[in-house]
Specification:
By secondary structure, the protein is of the alpha/beta class. Helices cover about 40% and strands about 20% of the residues. It has 2 domains: about 35-145 and about 275-295, Response regulator (Rossmann fold, 3-Layer(aba) Sandwich); about 150-270 and about 305-330, Rossmann fold (3-Layer(aba) Sandwich), CATH 3.40.50.2300. It is elongated and about 65 Å long.
């Protein structure tokens, strides 16, 4: 049969269009079964910074997952007291994977299920709080990204006590969150670091999740030369309110996350938490393709960043030494 050239061209174009996916869309070659829609649960204490969620979503997109097409994310945010019920709700939904952002979400997620895979993001001390037996061999149905806040406490105190920054730094207060699973291990790490540096550390507990408690807590640290706080979602959730109160108290505060400094606080030293959420998407992808959490070693950050807010430093009457500015990964002016 003879086919005219214009018709032949149209047939070829139609055939090509049927096998080439639009730019950015997932294809079967990327390992996703045709028509399969995965359901991922995302559990966290309090409302997370947008950067954390966006980074996780970006990590999924990089691996061919598009929300509304081949993946649905069930977000569940609540107070630390609400997390057990929210975890159970995700289990009832029979999600394919639960992503637990921070230790306070990972602990109730593990208690809620021994069968659904769990990927934790930025968990503190997963071995010490009983989530896994070891970083190299997590075992069970849980793995993810983690870091050690106790080891970072000394570096944070050293940065605060730079002679040019806070020359009178001797008494440091630390806001803690006793309801958080890592409360004891984080406090011990800070106390050990303060003792080594010849400083006095005063723990000030915040019992609930109400941001109004920050006001009373900051009044209780009167007389301190500087302030630390535990690495928990309580502080990142209320980071704007925290920064306002700290500025009013005229206290230099050292944080663990850049998001606190972007909200108006002085300085932070710690891992790039948003990037660790993006890395969590790698674990989700591997698990959805058949890998077992028990066989995926826990990943820890290799780079820690310094972020400084010069506007806040000026308001506090502090001069940031040039040596520290040169080491900073980001300077907010």
């Amino acid at each position: 049969m003879r086919v005219d050239a214009p018709i032949l061209v149209c047939l070829l174009l139609f055939a090509t269009a049927s096998v080439v996916a639009p730019s950015g869309a997932p294809t079967h070659a990327q390992g996703h079964p045709a028509g399969k829609v995965y359901r991922i649960g995302f559990l966290r204490q309090g409302q997370p910074p947008e950067a954390f969620v966006e980074a996780f979503q970006q990590g999924l997109r990089e691996r061919g997952y598009v929300e509304g097409q081949n993946v649905v994310i069930e977000f569940r945010f609540g107070s630390i007291e609400q997390l057990p019920k929210l975890a159970e709700e995700l289990v009832r939904l029979q999600v394919d994977v639960i992503v637990a952002s921070a230790s306070s979400a990972a602990v109730p997620a593990k208690k809620a299920t021994a069968s659904i895979p769990i990927v934790f993001a930025t968990v503190n001390h997963p071995v010490e709080i009983g989530l896994i037996p070891s970083l190299a061999r997590p075992g069970g149905n849980i793995t993810g990204t983690a870091f050690n806040s106790a080891d970072l406490a000394g570096k944070r105190l050293e940065l605060l006590m730079l002679r040019e920054l806070v020359p009178t730094l001797k008494r440091v207060a630390m806001l803690t969150h006793p309801a958080h699973p890592t409360y004891a291990v984080q406090l011990k790490g800070a106390e050990d670091a303060a003792r080594t540096l010849g400083m006095q550390l005063k723990p000030v507990p915040i019992r609930g999740s109400n941001e109004n408690e920050f006001d009373a807590a900051l009044k209780a640290v009167a007389g301190a030369d500087g302030l630390l706080h535990a690495d928990t979602p309580l502080f990142t959730t209320h980071r704007v309110r925290f920064a306002e109160l700290a500025a009013r108290s005229r206290l230099p505060v050292m944080h663990g996350y850049r998001e606190m400094v972007e909200a108006g606080s002085l300085m932070s030293y710690g891992p790039h938490v948003a990037d660790l959420h993006r890395r969590a998407a790698t674990y989700v992808d591997k698990i959805l393709k058949g890998a077992k959490p028990a066989d995926l070693p826990v990943e820890q950050p290799t780079k820690f960043e310094i972020v400084i807010n010069l506007k806040t430093a000026k308001a506090l009457g502090l001069t940031i030494p040039r040596s520290l500015l040169l080491r900073a990964d980001q300077i907010i002016e």
